[in-house]
Structures are given as structure tokens and as C-alpha cells.
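Pasting as-is:
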Amino acid sequence: MIDVISRAGGLTDKADQVQVNFAEHVKDEMIIYIPAKGEEGLSTPITSGSNPSSSVGGQRSEKININKADETELQNLPGIGPAKAAAILEYRNTSGPFKAIEDLKNISGIGDKTFEKLKDLIVI
């Protein structure tokens, strides 16, 4: 994703970088939409004939189930790298499945700010 954005001339001052997964792999016919600051990511693709699982706002359009996702899927979430993904899996293995998405805040390194970025992208 970062290479595509760079080739396009980079982000504007209005672009909301928080909503973009710069590490996401670009696929053929993928729609890339980068929302402006303060704008919610679109919930539907912006052109007809597109793949329903295309990315919108740099994120996958379907929510990630934090009780079923593997380490790679968890790393697609903003602010979740290898260490936090491993911590989420460890929490699931030792404490059982999450009962509410707010339980994610029990993971070391996931506070209110990170949770705010994640809450609309995850389900249990």
C-alpha cells in the first residue's frame, strides 16, 4: 500500500493516515480510498462491479472476529503488530474467548486510544 500511495504522489494534508493500513498488500482491481481527517471510512465500495471484499479506507470491509482471527489477520488491524497480535492470542489461550470487545483493553499495550481505533473493525 505504501508503494502505491508513494507512486500516486503521496498523501495530502487532509488524508487521515490512522485509517490506512500501509502494510496491506495491493491486489488486482482493488479499490483504494483514503478518507479525509474526521471522515468515516466508506462502508460500501465506490464503484460497481468491484469485489465485495475489496479494501475501503485501507481496511478490509468485513469485521475481524477477535476470538477466531489468527496472528496475521490481527496484524491487519491498525495499531496491532506482531507483539500485540501474539499477546491477543496468548490472552485467548489463557483466559478463554473474549466476552466483549472491550475485553481487548485487558491486553498490555492496548489502551483507550488503540481501542477507539479498533472498536468498529472487530467483533466477538
